[in-house]
Amino acid sequence: MIRCICVDDEPKALDVIRIHVKQVPQLEVLDYFTDPILAIEFLMHHPIDLIFLDINMPELTGLNLLDKLAQRPLVVFTTAYSEYAVDSYDYQAVDYLLKPIVFNRFLRSVLRAEEQMKNQSKPNGYEDFIFLKDGYKQIKVQIESIDFVQSDGNYLDVHTDQETIITRMNFRDLSRKLPSSFIRIHNSYIVNLAKVERIEGSQICIKETKLSLGPNYRQAVLERLKIK
Question: Which pick of 49, 99, 188, 197 has the fewest CB atoms within 10 Å?
């Protein structure tokens, strides 16, 4: 099952997607939004696999919305303007649907997303490792060895089971290289859920380290850990 949401400022465009969704049993639509701000608030508390996202919205474009997410789901862009197609590739979109959206193209997008989800053990087509720049060095890091990542100004402290690597990077860029087992728990932390040993009140415990669990992230984290 593909958990998704749909965001478009035009209610009629969402009505078309609703009709198509009824013919695709592998889609589970959690909600529809005409307000992108409300969509962002929803995404802070509900993990999803895919977002059908309009690009040209007046208050906040679809591209702006994605820029505000610490961890992006797969995205299928929907728009009436073909000139946005080039921008969509910069965001590694699954597909780009031009309105009016016909069912056959909609279904093809879903199948593409499904295929990418099957390969999510390797983030965005990468191998099981990433290279992080530390000064003049490029350090190979096995993704499964990462415990958590801490933001420190313009740098990230990547804590692994062997060492801590300081790299000049932001959460958005690093998240593109990490699988869905990594989730943001605080404005300053991304953790590997596989390494979480326990939760003590508002703290996530990984080995001997206790990390703050931000109130805005708590519900999403508990859902991912299957804690009621």
Answer: 197
